[in-house]
Amino acid sequence: MYINIKTSLAKKLLFFFIFFNLFIPTPSFYSCAQNQFTSEEKSFIDIYEKILPSTVTIEADIDKGTSGGTGCIITKSGVILTSSHVIENSRNIQVTTHSGKNYSAIVLAILKNKNDLALIKINPKEDLQLAKFGNSDEVKVGQRVLALGCPFGFRDTLTVGIVSRIDYERNKIQTDAAINPGCSGGPLLNLKGEIIGINQSIYNPDNNRSNIGIGFALPSNYAVDFIAKAKKKLAHIN
């Protein structure tokens, strides 16, 4: 069909018709954009964005080079929970917050005997967001969990899995959420965004340093008990 556009008004109307159809999104477009994530994905995204500011990246100078790990902020004054094997026998500890600020840290307390936890402290020049602990006695095999850490130096990495097993004898939560070197001291989270474990180690029978789907975390109640005992000994922890 041939259309003869004789007036400037007709030309303008045609232009606006083409413009609005090509460049202005329709309601269905907005609907698709809002629903691009499943409810589970939205949950993961919310947890990640919520917990990230309460975690830090840790680098410590040791005899063999640099030890890397992750930590959870537990006080506004700058006390951080991490794994003792990350900072033990180190000469210098550097902490990087989510905002990108770097701080030197000192060691406040260390718990050894394979249940390695430690408290270190920075003197922050910024407001810190605190980690929230859940009740690890309520953890069940099969429940969804998320692990946050700095594997191989890749900061702010989130992985997803389930609780694979609970080792009551060794006081460990086993998970298939990917945990790698650099994740030690980071949080294992439930879908409420609560810390139910502190990531500690992986099973590597062939001396392979990377994850094979068997990782371990210390139960959060164990960590909370350690923090409480440390506070009694160290009056300046608040």
Question: How would you describe this protein?
Answer:
The chain is α+β, with helices and mostly antiparallel strands and 238 residues long. It folds into 2 domains: 50-130 and 226-233, Beta Barrel (Thrombin, subunit H); 136-220, Thrombin, subunit H (Beta Barrel), CATH 2.40.10.10. It is 23% helix and 32% strand. The chain has 5 helices and 13 strands. It has helices at 8-23, 27-34, 39-51, 84-87, 220-233, and strands spanning 55-62, 65-73, 79-82, 92-96, 102-104, 106-111, 117-121, 144-149, 157-167, 172-175, 187-189, 195-202, 215-219. Strands 5-4-1-2-3-7-6 form a 7-stranded antiparallel β-sheet. Strands 8-9-10-13-12-11 form a 6-stranded antiparallel beta barrel. Strand 6 and strand 7 form a beta hairpin. The model is unreliable at 1-5 (pLDDT under 50).
| Major sheet description | 7 strands, antiparallel
Sheet with most strands: strand arrangement = 5-4-1-2-3-7-6
Mean pLDDT over the full residue set: 86
The CATH superfamily name of the largest domain is Trypsin-like serine proteases
State the share of residues found in helices, binned by percent.
10-25%
Strand % is 25-35%
User: Number of folding domains?
Assistant: 2
CATH topology of the largest domain: Thrombin, subunit H
The CATH architecture of the largest domain: Beta Barrel
Order of helices and strands: HHHEEEHEEEEEEEEEEH
Shape annotation: globular
Alpha carbon gap, first and last residue: 80 Å
Low-confidence stretches: 1-5
Could you say which structural class the secondary elements and strand pairing correspond to?
A: alpha+beta
Radius of gyration: 25 Å
For the record, what CATH class of the largest domain applies? Mainly Beta
How many DSSP-defined strands? 13
Contiguous helical run count? 5
